[in-house]
What we know:
The protein is mostly helical. The protein is built from 13 helices and two strands.
Amino acid sequence: MNQVKNKKSILLFLIPALALYGCVQIGPLFQSLYYSFFSWKGFGEMKPVGLQNYIKLFTDDDIMRIAFKNTFLFAGISLLILLPFAFMLAVTLTTKIRFSKTISTILYMPGVISTVVVSLMWCAILNAESGPVNAVLRTMGLDFLARVWLGDPKVSMYVVIFVNVWQWAGYHMLIFYTSLQSIPGELYEAASIDGSDGFKTLRYITIPLMYNSIKMNATLIIIGSFKCFDIVYNMTMGGPADSTQMLATYMYHNTFRRFNYGYGSAISMVIFLLSITVSAILQKVKFGDESVSY
């Protein structure tokens, strides 16, 4: 009887949070799904078009194909750089180096700063005329490397990815760092007694015990890349020549610049389905033998 009462009490306290979550998350999701089957400018008459928005999205939109390619490129490179880099930082900070807490705080700080501020700061740093990057290159006699970093289609995407990595490396490092702190020291002591060196300890003890953190960070990086908007929009607005156009920026462009709410909603549903699919796949992935041994 007490358990039943406890469950009712828990449910009673959960209802306000669930209601709020439904209003700000679940409700708009179904609303976007509904809008995606219409041609609508955000005002006036809504014309039903069935699956036409989705058909056009996948068969008759060259910019959408570019946005798809850029989004997967952004996600892939961010994952390949952020995941090992954040892990390496976390492992380094747990080796009892001096000022490790101070260093971890400094590394985490960019993740606390507003993305808009980060974007504007890096726009100033990378400014072709007055930015310190080109100024330093010219001072060092490397004028041939100086360029319009955010105006060159060949490098603009990689510059935006670099800024994204710079901002979020500390955040993912902190997740790894917290997970490393929970590994019992006795395992490392036993491995040391048995003659295990640093690499073997990392390979057979640390990494297997970090699989859940690795999966979580990988999921956050990929989903964050699929939804990435503010860094790209504030730095390049999807340009030049759509070289940094992402699914999220293209959704914004269609919805709030062209006032094509139906088509923009269809793009938002594609982003949602991609995120859900990738999350499900990553949760099922097994990285070899997840048992601890050495």
